[in-house]
Write a structure and sequence with these properties.
Helix content is 46%, strand content 8%. The protein is α/β, with parallel strands linked by helices.
Length: 309
């Protein structure tokens, strides 16, 4: 059985994470962009709807439920390299050390995330499958434009909780669906939390803590759906679980050229000024970027294909 504990080097990573989140008593933290009260309000919203659909489970109990219902060979952890999916990966490994792990190498991870995934895969001896999408982010941008900021829809009107950008469909959803079909996967364990965004809270309000995704033809289980950020970091500290070095300057890992979340511009300026300058040029200059950011209207993008050298 492989060991999933870590040494001093990784412990420093957990401590860095606590400082960044402002949970070490030293300040507000770079990543704490919501107050605890705001997080709890979103969680309460999600729980109010979720509990009407299925019971609320503690994280480890929900992972066990997924394994019992579908069998260990039919369950996989969807791991992006972000802090939330890393925590649920660690939890799952304690229950099923050889659990299947799925990761998409879509070409627009932050470099820190890519290095972190490679190192963790080796350190934790993961049963890891890595997929590469059929299309690149830049091919999709050339055809569809940059993704618009995500805006919550109105569930009372029967609208979906969020419109999925074309890049997410090609770079995340399709590789996951292809993996499910090829490997016969029935369920994915994911790290989504209601506290992260109102869109996610609304999704859990509508669907519950675990649910069947009809289009994917697989179940999704969200063990830490109702955790606040403080609980996430406390788990990392107590179990010596590292987080990606990208969190030294960023509050989310994700795709570095993603324009679908409000705050992407501030984050990219701070994490990688070179990438930010590149994006300004791709979006047609600072004036068009300001217009896009302010009005959420998709600007015309350049037609040339390519990314950063």
């Amino acid at each position: 059985m492989p060991s999933h504990t870590v040494g001093n080097w990784w412990r420093r990573g957990a401590e860095d994470g606590a400082r960044l989140l402002g949970l070490d008593g030293g300040g507000a933290g770079l990543m704490k962009h919501k107050t605890e009260a705001q997080e709890l309000a979103q969680i309460e919203l999600a729980r109010r709807g979720a509990i009407q659909r299925n019971p609320i489970y503690e994280p480890s109990e929900l992972i066990k439920l997924a394994l019992e219902r579908h069998g260990s060979d039919k369950v996989a952890v969807s791991w992006s390299g972000g802090r939330c999916s890393t925590v649920i990966l660690h939890m799952a490994l304690q229950i099923c050390p050889d659990i299947r792990v799925f990761h998409t190498d879509h070409g627009v991870h932050y470099p820190e995330t890519s290095r972190y995934v490679r190192r963790m895969a080796k350190e934790w001896n993961l049963n890891l499958a890595i997929a590469k999408p059929e299309r690149t982010f830049w091919e999709i941008v050339k055809e569809k434009g940059f993704p618009k900021p995500r805006v919550p829809m109105d569930p009372k009107r029967g609208q979906s909780a969020v419109r999925t950008p074309a890049c997410c469909r090609w770079l995340k959803e399709k590789p996951l669906a292809d993996f499910r079909k090829k490997e016969g996967i029935e369920a994915f364990i994911v790290g989504m939390r209601a506290a992260e965004a109102r869109i996610r809270a609304l999704s859990m309000y509508q669907k519950g803590q675990f649910y069947l995704v009809k289009k994917l033809k697989a179940w999704k289980y969200n063990p830490i759906a109702f955790w606040i950020t403080k609980e996430l970091v406390s788990y990392c500290q107590a179990n010596d679980v590292p987080i990606s070095p990208i969190y030294k300057t960023a509050f989310r890992s994700g795709c570095w050229p993603c324009t679908a979340f409000v705050g992407w511009r501030d984050q990219l300026m701070r994490t990688n000024p070179k990438y930010y300058d590149f994006m300004v040029k791709k979006l047609g200059g600072q004036q068009m970027l300001d217009h896009f950011y302010r009005t959420r209207v998709e600007p015309p993008c350049h037609t040339e294909r390519g990314g950063l050298d």
